[in-house]
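Revision sheet: structure tokens.
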Amino acid sequence: MDFNFMKQESQNPDTAAGKEDAGSQQADQTGEQVNADQHEEERRFTQEEVNDIVQKRLAKERERLSKVFQEEKQLSELEERERNILKRELRADAIEELSNRKLSPRLAELLDYSSPEGMKRSMDEVTAIFQSALSDKIRPMARQSTPYEGSGGSGINVSVDAAMRKAFNL
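Predicted:
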């Protein structure tokens, strides 16, 4: 390395300043070239090109939303099928339970089939109401006067049997 050259530059402040100016001019020219390159890279779009770009993006978004909508529709159809299956299963269980309780299967029309808990709750309510109404209807009929002696059979059984037949329209 030439130490004399560096020594001369440091002794002559004008030369050092001149070199700094030359360096900054060179940096400015390089910066202008970078700016020019960036400016060349910036592309101006015509209205047609912008419209095409927007239309393509809109088409992609519509397609994506259409797929999402179809998936949601399929899910809702599956959920609807599952609800219908559950309702049929609960109805069959309700009819069986009503038969076990010796009640009319027509009472199944009054039950809630939205969930197993709802069906159980409505089954209990409907059967309680039905049995209460039935016993309220039978009690007054069972309180009829006692049959005369010698009429054959026990009078109580006859009146209860008659009341049941009348209550069920048999």
